[in-house]
Specification:
Blueprint (H helix, E strand, L loop, with lengths): L33 H10 L3 E2 L8 E2 L5 H10 L23
Antiparallel strand pairs: 1-2
The protein binds zinc ion.
Zinc ion binds next to loops.
Length: 96
Amino acid sequence: MSLRLQHCYVAACDVCHVEYTDPETDAVAWFPDETSAEQALRADRWMVLARNLPERFVCPADDEAHHALVDSLMPPEPVIQLSGQLGFDGTEEPSR
Ligand SMILES: [Zn+2]
């Protein structure tokens, strides 16, 4: 048997940096490519984000740091101000 170097992917949470482990063996999982890593993590309740984002993976840990990252990815709440209604800053929308 020969020993050779082979590249593989290991996924880690971008919040707590814990490495993804195989649920059956509890060992750090190695993936041959990015797509199979994404599929395995998604199937195991990890959040898999778009490849162009700086953060890619979020583990299912339920704490403030993880919630903060997920919240930061959400679009801002729309601010609706009706005509004649006071805005949050106390100003009234000028009537047209
Ligand atoms: Zn995490």
